[in-house]
Design goal:
Blueprint lengths: L4 E6 L6 E8 L9 H6 L2 H6 L1 E4 L1 H10 L2 H7 L3 H6 L1 H11 L7 H6 L1
Antiparallel strand pairs: 1-2, 2-3
Helix pairs in contact: 3-6
Length: 107
């Protein structure tokens, strides 16, 4: 699940200013799956995504399996519309931005 580090920015899910990782809307493990290859180009699968904090990225990947993410939650709008995500946002916004660069790099 470890995505490309993007530096400090505003998380697309919770809105906190924090270190971000790149969340692929089509998970990398699905890029060679025939169902996805028929519907998306390699470039689309590699480039479509958004910057999210580690907490939100982790929650997304523990809430949905890889195929479900790629087929059902393949845009920011679809992720944000999910009831579980909506319930998670107020919780995570209350959390301190305690992750340090060193901790971030180990994940």
């Amino acid at each position: 699940m470890a995505g490309k580090q993007l530096g400090i920015g505003q998380c697309a899910i919770c809105g906190r200013k924090i270190e971000l990782t790149f969340h692929h809307f089509i998970p990398r493990s699905m890029h060679s799956n025939k169902w996805f290859e028929k519907r998306y180009t390699k470039e689309q699968m590699k480039s479509q995504g958004c910057g999210v904090c580690w907490d939100c990225h982790s929650f997304i990947h523990t809430t949905f399996d890889e195929k479900e993410l790629g087929r059902e939650y393949n845009s920011l709008e679809k992720i944000l519309a999910n009831e579980k995500i909506q319930k998670f946002i107020p919780f995570v916004r209350k959390q301190k931005n305690t992750i340090t660069n060193r901790e971030f790099k180990r994940r």
